[in-house]
Amino acid sequence: MALQNDLTRRLGIEHPIIQAPMAGGTTTPELVAAVSNSGGLGSIGAGYMAPDAIAEAIDRTRALTNRPFAVNLFIPGAFSINTDAIEQANARLDRFRDELAIERPEPPTRYAPPFDDQFEVVAQAGVAVFSFTFGQLDAARIARLQAAGTVVIGTATTVAEARALAHEGVDMIVAQGSEAGGHRGTFLGTFEQALIGTMALVPQVVDAVDVPVIASGGIMDGRGLAAATALGAQAAQMGSAFLTCRESGAKPAHKKALLDAGDRATVVTRAFSGKPARGLANRFITEMAPLEPELPDYPVQNAWTKDIRAAAGNTEDDAFMSLWAGQAAALSRDRSAAECVETMMAEYAQCLARLHHS
Prior knowledge:
By secondary structure, the protein is α/β, with parallel strands linked by helices. The protein has a domain at 6-76 and 112-250: Aldolase class I (TIM Barrel), CATH 3.20.20.70. It has helices at residues 6-11, 29-37, 51-64, 83-100, 115-125, 139-147, 159-168, 198-208, 222-230, 240-243, 252-259, 283-288, 300-313, 337-357, and strands at residues 17-19, 42-45, 69-74, 129-133, 151-156, 172-176, 182-183, 213-216, 235-238, 266-269, 277-280. An eight-stranded parallel β-sheet has the order 1-9-8-6-5-4-3-2. It has a three-stranded antiparallel β-sheet with strand order 7-11-10, with no helix packed on it. Helix 3 links the parallel strand 2 and strand 3 (69-74).
């Protein structure tokens, strides 16, 4: 069944399903295109990508679909390069490197791709949708994108952030509940203050802003989609639900950990990147926990753990991998992206039928 509303009509999609823009290689052009071809909105997670790689990913995705898709970037924030903190962190990281039989890398030439150049590539590409997280995009850039016909979506973890994004002129807002996997999008206040559950956050954001709201966090199937729409959201953005799809670029060990998650806990940690993010608990997180208060800022810590994450990802041992996952990870299923979208909409219809006959 198709569920149409202001958001789906504005985005040009059939179903109120958005595949979350997971950075780090997960959102392959094949995954993004498959979701869009199935009637949802696929999203390229381009936060870590060099500008030329973003252009290539957009071209590859366009070769696979003529339907709308999104490109997502990280809004850069202030950070410091504390050599003492870097050395202290590396002293612990070197023990993991020894186990993985790798050497400590040379200091990176830069800690993050140049945002201005990334943005310019996206703006010139004329994509249908641009989304962002970790901060606020300035009103001038928002207006430039909108003038070219691009829909702009920001990410909020609190009502205050949602109001700030609406004030800058975004077209839609993702309300990211505390259940969500991956990095927290908080940019006003501390992340601890912004750990608000999806069910509590979404209706407050809906009441606070006059733009369509997209629910995110702990939504894995049609039941979650039905709950989100009941709360006033016009769509649901899902990451973990698509991580285990066959088109996903997630490492096999990551997919296996999600499919076998069961009662395995998820935790919010700064251990991998220096920014709070939710993932499945593992040995790396546990052993780095005592150092968390002194870890380098994001993206410095993220750059220094890249070699460990890459080496671990090439093995079947998930002890040192960043296993990003939401709190409903145990609902993960092995299927194609098309099957994922189709099943969600069938489940959504079943939920509505049960409610109608209850």
